[in-house]
Amino acid sequence: RRPQLIIGTPGRLLDHVRRGTLALGSVNKIVLDEADEMLKMGFIEDVETLLGAVAQDYQLALFSATMPERIVRLTKRFMTNPAHIRLAERQ
User: Quick one: CA torsion of 43, 33, 14, 39, rounded to 10 degrees?
Assistant: First the structure.
Protein backbone atom coordinates (compact mmCIF):
# COMPACT_ATOMS: atom_id res chain seq x y z
CA ARG A 1 0.00 0.00 0.00
CA ARG A 2 1.01 3.62 -0.21
CA PRO A 3 1.04 5.16 3.29
CA GLN A 4 1.02 8.94 3.48
CA LEU A 5 2.83 9.12 6.82
CA ILE A 6 5.33 6.78 8.47
CA ILE A 7 6.59 7.43 11.99
CA GLY A 8 9.19 5.32 13.75
CA THR A 9 12.56 5.04 15.38
CA PRO A 10 15.48 4.53 12.99
CA GLY A 11 16.08 0.98 14.21
CA ARG A 12 12.45 -0.06 13.81
CA LEU A 13 12.13 1.49 10.36
CA LEU A 14 15.34 -0.18 9.23
CA ASP A 15 14.05 -3.51 10.55
CA HIS A 16 10.95 -3.14 8.36
CA VAL A 17 13.05 -2.19 5.33
CA ARG A 18 15.28 -5.24 5.80
CA ARG A 19 12.27 -7.55 6.18
CA GLY A 20 10.68 -6.13 3.04
CA THR A 21 7.59 -4.80 4.85
CA LEU A 22 8.48 -1.16 4.12
CA ALA A 23 9.84 0.36 0.90
CA LEU A 24 11.22 3.89 1.07
CA GLY A 25 11.78 4.49 -2.65
CA SER A 26 8.86 6.91 -2.97
CA VAL A 27 9.37 8.77 0.33
CA ASN A 28 10.04 12.42 -0.46
CA LYS A 29 9.72 14.21 2.88
CA ILE A 30 11.69 13.27 6.00
CA VAL A 31 11.69 14.85 9.45
CA LEU A 32 14.46 13.93 11.87
CA ASP A 33 13.83 15.23 15.37
CA GLU A 34 16.40 15.07 18.16
CA ALA A 35 19.23 14.24 15.74
CA ASP A 36 21.84 14.80 18.46
CA GLU A 37 20.08 12.27 20.69
CA MET A 38 20.02 9.72 17.86
CA LEU A 39 23.78 10.18 17.60
CA LYS A 40 24.22 9.63 21.35
CA MET A 41 22.07 6.50 21.22
CA GLY A 42 24.05 5.02 18.34
CA PHE A 43 21.36 5.36 15.65
CA ILE A 44 23.26 7.63 13.27
CA GLU A 45 24.38 4.79 10.99
CA ASP A 46 20.77 3.57 10.78
CA VAL A 47 19.66 7.10 9.84
CA GLU A 48 22.30 7.26 7.11
CA THR A 49 21.16 3.89 5.75
CA LEU A 50 17.52 5.00 5.74
CA LEU A 51 18.34 8.29 3.99
CA GLY A 52 20.21 6.35 1.34
CA ALA A 53 17.05 4.35 0.59
CA VAL A 54 14.59 7.22 0.00
CA ALA A 55 13.66 8.94 -3.27
CA GLN A 56 16.34 11.08 -4.93
CA ASP A 57 14.25 14.27 -4.69
CA TYR A 58 13.48 14.21 -0.97
CA GLN A 59 13.10 17.16 1.38
CA LEU A 60 14.81 16.73 4.76
CA ALA A 61 14.07 18.72 7.91
CA LEU A 62 16.50 18.03 10.75
CA PHE A 63 15.97 19.35 14.27
CA SER A 64 18.62 19.17 16.97
CA ALA A 65 19.32 21.02 20.21
CA THR A 66 23.05 20.80 19.50
CA MET A 67 25.01 20.31 16.29
CA PRO A 68 27.87 17.87 16.95
CA GLU A 69 30.33 17.45 14.07
CA ARG A 70 28.80 14.09 13.07
CA ILE A 71 25.39 15.75 12.62
CA VAL A 72 26.97 18.58 10.60
CA ARG A 73 28.55 15.95 8.32
CA LEU A 74 25.15 14.30 7.95
CA THR A 75 23.61 17.60 6.82
CA LYS A 76 26.40 18.16 4.30
CA ARG A 77 25.98 14.64 2.90
CA PHE A 78 22.19 14.51 2.65
CA MET A 79 21.07 18.15 2.33
CA THR A 80 21.48 20.79 -0.38
CA ASN A 81 22.12 24.31 0.92
CA PRO A 82 20.83 23.59 4.45
CA ALA A 83 19.77 26.55 6.57
CA HIS A 84 21.20 26.53 10.07
CA ILE A 85 18.83 28.39 12.39
CA ARG A 86 20.21 29.18 15.82
CA LEU A 87 17.84 30.41 18.52
CA ALA A 88 19.10 32.67 21.28
CA GLU A 89 18.47 31.83 24.91
CA ARG A 90 15.80 33.76 26.72
CA GLN A 91 17.22 36.07 29.35
Answer: -10
